[in-house]
C-alpha cells in the first residue's frame, strides 16, 4: 500500500485530527505537570493538594476521552457517551457506597483502620 | 505423598477419595457419609463413562463435534446451555432433598456429618445460582432473543462459544469435586475469614473460587454479547418501543451482567490472592479486613438476583399475553419498570448485611431503597393481571407455571419487604426465614419462569410439542412441593432456627422440618415428572410434530419461521412495522409470503475455540486447586496460543447460496399451504401442526 | 458481510461511528463488523472500568491497614511514578499518530514505525514498573506485610498486567500485518487496541493521582 495523495477534504480532516491529538497531548502534559510539580516542590496544605490533584485528574480524564478516544457530544455518538455516563453512575454508587459503608464501620468499630 | 510425584500431582493424594475418611476412622456416621459420597462420585464417573460408551457405540463423536461442540449457531449454544442447566438442576435438587432429610431427622443428630452437610449447602447454592440458573437463562436468551429481534446470530458467535466453554468448565470442576473431594463448606457466599487460608487450607475453597470465577467470566462475556446484539442487530423497523418484552428483559439482564459481575471477580480474585500468595486483604490480622469482602460480594450479589429474575419476568410477559390472546397491557410501563428495577438493583446491596455494625442511618437508607424496588415490581404484577383481564385464557402448561408464579411471587415479595426493615432483619437474619424468602423468589420466579419458557419454546427448537399431561403434573407438583417445602421454613425462621444448621435440639422444630421433607419429596416427584414428560414427548414426537412453527398463535418474530428454524433463522431479514410484529403480519394477511429474492447468506464458520476454553479452563481450575503448577502453565499457554492463532485466522465465515435457501424456504411454504389451521382451543391436541387459524377480521388481538 | 448483519435502513449511508478514531469512507471493507466489534470492545472496557474502580475503592479502604509496616511515604518514589507517567502519556500520543497513519493510508513503514515506538514505550513502562516493585520489595514492601500493601499490589500490578497484555496483542497484530497485510481484520484489531491503550492511560491517571501523589502528599 503506497502513500496515496489525499483529497483536500481528507487533508483538512487529517490536519484537524492531528491537532486534536497534539492538543490532547499538550493538555495532558500540563495537567500531569501541575500536580506533580506542586506535590514535589510546593508546600501546600494536604487538603488543598488533594483537591488540586483530584481536579487535575478529573480534567485530564475528560481530555483523554475527548482528544484520544474521540468521545464527543455529536449526536450519532450518543450511545458511547451514555455508556460512559452510566458507568460513571454505577461507579459512583458502588465505590461511593463502599467508602461510605466501610469508613462508617471503621469509625464505629475499627478506628485503627482509619488512615 | 513422596517427592517424585509431587511435581505431577501437587497436593492431590488418596485422601481426596470420598471414602478415605471412613477407611481411617470407620465410625457408623463416617461410613454412612462415605457411602453417600461414594455413591455420588460413582454416579459422576459412571455417567461420564456411559456417555463416552454411548457416543462411541452409536458413532456419534464426529456428529457431536461438527454439529454441536464447534457450532457457532446461537440456537445450538442455547440448547447446550440449557441441557447443562438441567443436569446441574438434577444434582442440586437431589442435594436439597438430602439436606431436608437430614434436618427431618436432625433432632439431636441426624445422619450427616457437619462437614458433609456444609458441602451440601455450599454445592447446592453454588450450583443453583451459577450452574443452573445462569446457564438456564443464558441459554434461553441465546436461543430466543436473536429470533425475536430478527437477526441471524449474536454479534460475537465465537465469544458465545467461549462463554459456554467457561461455564461448562466451572460445572465440570464442581462435578470433579465429587470424585476428588472435598468441596468448600463456606456456603455459596464464601465469606472469609472462614474461607481464608488460616482457617481452611484445604482444596475445597479453591475449587469453589475457580468454579465461580469461571462462571463469572462467562457471564460477563455473555452480557456483552447480548447487549451489543440488541443494540446493533435489530431488524429494520424494530425500534426500541417495538422490542418484545423478553428482549427488553434480556437487555437489562445483559447490562446487569456487564456491570455487576466485576465486583464478584474482584472479590474472588482477592480471596485467591489471600490464599495463594499470602496477601492480607481479608485476613483477621496484619491489617486485613473481611468486611470488604462481604461488601464486594453483595455489590455483585444483589444485582445478581435481578439477573436471575428479569429474564423470567420477560418469559412470563410473553406467556401471559400469548395465552390470554391479548397484547401486553401497559407495555411502556413494563419497560420502564424493568429499567427502573435494573438501576435500583445497584443501590440496595447493604440489605444483605444490615447486622454488620454500620450506623442506623445507613441501614435506613438502604432499607428504604430496597422497599422502593417493590414499586416497579408491583407495577409489573398489575400489568400482568390486567393483561389477563378479560382475555380468553388457555390454561396451558406455561400458564400454570405463570399463575403459580403470580400468586407465590407476591408472597415472597412481601416477605422481602418485611426483611427490608432493618430492625426486623436483626431478628430473623441468618435464619430459615431468609432461606424461605429467597427460595420463594427463586423457585416461583426464576425456576418456574425457565420451566414455563422451556414448555413455551421447546416446540420452536425441536419441532414438536412437549406432552401436556405430564407437563401439567410436573407443574402442579412443583407448585405444591414448593409450598410444602418452604412455607414451614418461615415458621422455623421465626422460631429461631438458624440457616445452615446440621442438627438442632428443639423438638418444636420437628413438625415443620418433617412437613418440609414431604414438600421436598414432592419436588423430587416433580423432577421425575419432568423427565417422564421429556421421555413421552420424544416418544410421541411424530404425533406432536408441528413443523410450521407457530403452535400457540404467537406474537413475536420467532414464531414466523419453521420449527426447528433453519440455521440462518430468516431467509431474508424481516421488516418490522409494529409491536407484536408477527401478530401484525398475521392480521394483515402478510404472514408466510414469498420474498422477492434470496440473497446469499454469510454465516460464521465452525470453530473449536469453545472446546479449547472448556478444556483449558477446567485444567487451569483443577491445577490451581491441587497445586499442579505444570498443568496451570500448560493450560494458560494453550489458551494464549489459541487466542493469538485465532487472530491470524481469516476464513471465519462460510456462504450459503441463495438458491439453496430459496429451495428450503419454498418447501416449507408449500407445507404451510398444505396444513389445516388449528383453532386455539385445540392447540393442545394432535391437530396442532403449528399453524393457527388466522385472526378474525377486526377482532382485538 | 452484508447479509450477516442486519442494518437499520436509516443508517445505511452514514459512516460507522464508534469510540476511538473512525477510519471513515476510505476504509469501507469490514466497516459494518467494525462498528459492532468496536462497540463490543468499548462495552468490555466499561466493565473493566468497574473492576478498576472497585480496586481503587478497596485500596482507599485499606490505606489504614499498614499493620505497623511501611506506608506510602516509605515506599513510593515520585520520580519513578513521574517517569512511568511520561512513558505512558507519550505512548498514547504515538499510538494516536499510528492511528492517523492507518487512517490516511501513509506508507506502511510509517505505521509500523509508530507502532514500534509505542511498543517500546509500553515495554519500557512495564520494565520500569517491575524495577519499582523490586525496589519496594527490597525496602520491605511485600504484599504479605500488610493489608495496605496487599491492596496496593492487587491494584497497580493489575494495570501493569493489562499493559503487558496490550503489548502482546500489539506484537500479534504486527505479526498479522506481516502475514496478511493491512486487511479489514488487522485494521479492526488496531482500532480496538488503540482504545485499550488510551483506556489504560486513563486508568493510570487514577493510579498516579490517587496512589502515588495522594500517598506522597
Ligand atoms: C428445588 C427445591 C429446592 C429445595 C428443596 C432447596 C432446599 C434448600 C435447603 C435445604 C437449603 C439449605 C438451607 C439452610 O441453610 O439450612 C438451601 C439453600 C440454598 N438454596 Fe435451595 N432448594 C431448592 C431450590 C433452589 C433453587 C431453585 C435455588 C436457586 C436458584 C436455590 C438456591 C439456594 C441457595 C443460594 C442456598 C443457600 C446456600 C448457602 O447457605 O450458602 N435453591 N436450599
Ligand atoms: Cu438483595
Automatic annotation (TrEMBL), chain A:
Keywords: Cell membrane, Electron transport, Membrane, Oxidoreductase, Transmembrane, Transmembrane helix, Transport. InterPro entries: Cyt_c_oxidase_su4_prok, Cyt_o_ubiqinol_oxidase_su4, Cytochrome_c_oxidase_bac_sub4. It is a multi-pass membrane protein. Its main location: membrane. It is found in: Cell membrane. The chain crosses the membrane at residues 21-42, 48-69, 81-107. Pfam families: COX4_pro. It comes from the Bacteria. Heterooctamer of two A chains, two B chains, two C chains and two D chains. Belongs to the cytochrome c oxidase bacterial subunit 4 family. Cytochrome bo(3) ubiquinol terminal oxidase is the component of the aerobic respiratory chain of E.coli that predominates when cells are grown at high aeration. Has proton pump activity across the membrane in addition to electron transfer, pumping 2 protons/electron. This is Cytochrome bo(3) ubiquinol oxidase subunit 4. The gene is cyoD.
UniProtKB/TrEMBL annotation, chain C:
Gene3D superfamilies: Cytochrome c oxidase, subunit III, four-helix bundle. The keyword Transmembrane applies. Belongs to the cytochrome c oxidase subunit 3 family. The keyword Glycoprotein does not apply. Keywords: Cell membrane, Membrane, Transmembrane, Transmembrane helix. InterPro entries: Cyt_c/ubiquinol_Oxase_su3 (IPR024791), Cyt_c_oxidase-like_su3 (IPR000298), Cyt_c_oxidase_su3-like_sf (IPR035973), Cyt_c_oxidase_su3_a-hlx (IPR013833). Residues 1-29 are annotated as: Disordered. The chain crosses the membrane at residues 38-60, 80-102, 109-128, 148-174, 195-215. It is found in: Cell membrane. Pfam families: COX3. This is Cytochrome o ubiquinol oxidase subunit III. SUPFAM superfamilies: Cytochrome c oxidase subunit III-like. Residues 37-216 form the Heme-copper oxidase subunit III family profile domain. It is a multi-pass membrane protein.
Amino acid at each position: 500500500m503506497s502513500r496515496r495523495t489525499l483529497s483536500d477534504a481528507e487533508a483538512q480532516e487529517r490536519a484537524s485530527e492531528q491537532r486534536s491529538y497534539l492538543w490532547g497531548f499538550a493538555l495532558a502534559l500540563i495537567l500531569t505537570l501541575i500536580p506533580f510539580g506542586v506535590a514535589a516542590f510546593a508546600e501546600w496544605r494536604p487538603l488543598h493538594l488533594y483537591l488540586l490533584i483530584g481536579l487535575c485528574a478529573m480534567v485530564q480524564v475528560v481530555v483523554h476521552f475527548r482528544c484520544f478516544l474521540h468521545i464527543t457530544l455529536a449526536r450519532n455518538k450518543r450511545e458511547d457517551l451514555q455508556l460512559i455516563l452510566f458507568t460513571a453512575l454505577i461507579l459512583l454508587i458502588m465505590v461511593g457506597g463502599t467508602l461510605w459503608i466501610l469508613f462508617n464501620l471503621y469509625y464505629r468499630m475499627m478506628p485503627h483502620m482509619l488512615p | 505423598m513422596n517427592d517424585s510425584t509431587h511435581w505431577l500431582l501437587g497436593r492431590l493424594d488418596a485422601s481426596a477419595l470420598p471414602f478415605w475418611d471412613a477407611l481411617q476412622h470407620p465410625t457408623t456416621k463416617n461410613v454412612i457419609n462415605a457411602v453417600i459420597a461414594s455413591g455420588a462420585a460413582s454416579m459422576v464417573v459412571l455417567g461420564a463413562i456411559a456417555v463416552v460408551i454411548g457416543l462411541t457405540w452409536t458413532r456419534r463423536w464426529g456428529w457431536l463435534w461438527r454439529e454441536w461442540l464447534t457450532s457457532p449457531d446461537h440456537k445450538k449454544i442455547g440448547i447446550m446451555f440449557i441441557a447443562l442447566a438441567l443436569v446441574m438442576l438434577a444434582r442440586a435438587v437431589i442435594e436439597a432433598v438430602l439436606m431436608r432429610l437430614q434436618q427431618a431427622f436432625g433432632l439431636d443428630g441426624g445422619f450427616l456429618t457437619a462437614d458433609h452437610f456444609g458441602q451440601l449447602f455450599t454445592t447446592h447454592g453454588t450450583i443453583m445460582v451459577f450452574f443452573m440458573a445462569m446457564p438456564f437463562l443464558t441459554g434461553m436468551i441465546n436461543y430466543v432473543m436473536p429470533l425475536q429481534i430478527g437477526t441471524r446470530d449474536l454479534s460475537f458467535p465465537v465469544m458465545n462459544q467461549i462463554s459456554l466453554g467457561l461455564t461448562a468448565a466451572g460445572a465440570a470442576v464442581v462435578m470433579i469435586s465429587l470424585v476428588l473431594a472435598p468441596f468448600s463448606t463456606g456456603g455459596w457466599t464464601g465469606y472469609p475469614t472462614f474461607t481464608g487460608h488460616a482457617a481452611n487450607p484445604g482444596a475445597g475453597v479453591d475449587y469453589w473460587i475457580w468454579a465461580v470465577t469461571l462462571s463469572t467470566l462467562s457471564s460477563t462475556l455473555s452480557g456483552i454479547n447480548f447487549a451489543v446484539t440488541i443494540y446493533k442487530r435489530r431488524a429494520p423497523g424494530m425500534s426500541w418501543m417495538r422490542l418484545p418484552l423478553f428482549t427488553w428483559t434480556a437487555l437489562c439482564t445483559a447490562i446487569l451482567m456487564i456491570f455487576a459481575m466485576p465486583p464478584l471477580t474482584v472479590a474472588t480474585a482477592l480471596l485467591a490472592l489471600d490464599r495463594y500468595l499470602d496477601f492480607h486483604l481479608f485476613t483477621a490480622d496484619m491489617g486485613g479486613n473481611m468486611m470488604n469482602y462481604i461488601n464486594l460480594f453483595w455489590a455483585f450479589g444483589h444485582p445478581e438476583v435481578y439477573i436471575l429474575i428479569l429474564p423470567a419476568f420477560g418469559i412470563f410477559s410473553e406467556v401471559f399475553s400469548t395465552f390470554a390472546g391479548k397484547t401486553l397491557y401497559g407495555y411502556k410501563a413494563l419497560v420502564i419498570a424493568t429499567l427502573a428495577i435494573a438501576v435500583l438493583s445497584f443501590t440496595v446491596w447493604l440489605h444483605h448485611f444490615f447486622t454488620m455494625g454500620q450506623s442506623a442511618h445507613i441501614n435506613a437508607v438502604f432499607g428504604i431503597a430496597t422497599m422502593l424496588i417493590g414499586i416497579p415490581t408491583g407495577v409489573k404484577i398489575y400489568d400482568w393481571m390486567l393483561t389477563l383481564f378479560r382475555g380468553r385464557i388457555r390454561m396451558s402448561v406455561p400458564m400454570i407455571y405463570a399463575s403459580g408464579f403470580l400468586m407465590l411471587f407476591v408472597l415472597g415479595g412481601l416477605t422481602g419487604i418485611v426483611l427490608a426493615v432493618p430492625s426486623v432483619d436483626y431478628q430473623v437474619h441468618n435464619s430459615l426465614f431468609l432461606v424461605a424468602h429467597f427460595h420463594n423468589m427463586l423457585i416461583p420466579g426464576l425456576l418456574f419462569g425457565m420451566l414455563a419458557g422451556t414448555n413455551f419454546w421447546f416446540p420452536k427448537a425441536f419441532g414438536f410439542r412437549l406432552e401436556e399431561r405430564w407437563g401439567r403434573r410436573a407443574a402442579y407438583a412443583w407448585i405444591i412441593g414448593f409450598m410444602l417445602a418452604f412455607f414451614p421454613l418461615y415458621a422455623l425462621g421465626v422460631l429461631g432456627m438458624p440457616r445452615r444448621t446440621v442438627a438442632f435440639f428443639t423438638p418444636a422444630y420437628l413438625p415443620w422440618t418433617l412437613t418440609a421433607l414431604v414438600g421436598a419429596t414432592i419436588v423430587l416427584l416433580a423432577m421425575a415428572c419432568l423427565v417422564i414428560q421429556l421421555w413421552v414427548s420424544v416418544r410421541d414426537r411424530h404425533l406432536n410434530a408441528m413443523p410450521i412453527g407457530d403452535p400457540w398463535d404467537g406474537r413475536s418474530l420467532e414464531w414466523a419461521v419453521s420449527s426447528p428454524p433453519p440455521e440462518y433463522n430468516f431467509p431474508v431479514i424481516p421488516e418490522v412495522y409494529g409491536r407484536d410484529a408477527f401478530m401484525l403480519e398475521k392480521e394483515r394477511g402478510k404472514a408466510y409470503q414469498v420474498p422477492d429474492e434470496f440473497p446469499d447468506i454469510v454465516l460464521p464458520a465452525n470453530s473449536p475455540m469453545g472446546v479449547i476454553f472448556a478444556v483449558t479452563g477446567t485444567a487451569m481450575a483443577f491445577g490451581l486447586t491441587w497445586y499442579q503448577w505444570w498443568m496451570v502453565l500448560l493450560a494458560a499457554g494453550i489458551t494464549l496460543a489459541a487466542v493469538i492463532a485465532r487472530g491470524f485466522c481469516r476464513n471465519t465465515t462460510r456462504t450459503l447460496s441463495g438458491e439453496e435457501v430459496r429451495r428450503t424456504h419454498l418447501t416449507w411454504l408449500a407445507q404451510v399451504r398444505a396444513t389445516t389451521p388449528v383453532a386455539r382451543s385445540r392447540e393442545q391436541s394432535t391437530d396442532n401442526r403449528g399453524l393457527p387459524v388466522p385472526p378474525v377480521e377486526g377482532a382485538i388481538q | 458481510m452484508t447479509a450477516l448483519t442486519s442494518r437499520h435502513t436509516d443508517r445505511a449511508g452514514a459512516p460507522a461511528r464508534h469510540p476511538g478514531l473512525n477510519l471513515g469512507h476510505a476504509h469501507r471493507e469490514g466497516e459494518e463488523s467494525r462498528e459492532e466489534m468496536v462497540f463490543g470492545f468499548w462495552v468490555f472496557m466499561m466493565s473493566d472500568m468497574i473492576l478498576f474502580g472497585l480496586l481503587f475503592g478497596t485500596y482507599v479502604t485499606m490505606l489504614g491497614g499498614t499493620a505497623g509496616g511501611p506506608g506510602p511515604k516509605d515506599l513510593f518514589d515520585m520520580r519513578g511514578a513521574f517517569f512511568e507517567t511520561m512513558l505512558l502519556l507519550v505512548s498514547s500520543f504515538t499510538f494516536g499518530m499510528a492511528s492517523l497513519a492507518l487512517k490516511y493510508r501513509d506508507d506502511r513503514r510509517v505505521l509500523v514505525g509508530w507502532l514500534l515506538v509505542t511498543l517500546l514505550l509500553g515495554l519500557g513502562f512495564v520494565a520500569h514498573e517491575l524495577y519499582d516493585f523490586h525496589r519496594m520489595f527490597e525496602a520491605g514492601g511485600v504484599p504479605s506485610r500488610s493489608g495496605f500493601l496487599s491492596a496496593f499490589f492487587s491494584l497497580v500490578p493489575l494495570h501493569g498486567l493489562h499493559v503487558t497484555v496490550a503489548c502482546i496483542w500489539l506484537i500479534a497484530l504486527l505479526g498479522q500485518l506481516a502475514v496478511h497485510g493491512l486487511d479489514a481484520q488487522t485494521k479492526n484489531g488496531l482500532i480496538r487496541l488503540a482504545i485499550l491503550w488510551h483506556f489504560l492511560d486513563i486508568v493510570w491517571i487514577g493510579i498516579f493521582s490517587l496512589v502515588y501523589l495522594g500517598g506522597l502528599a
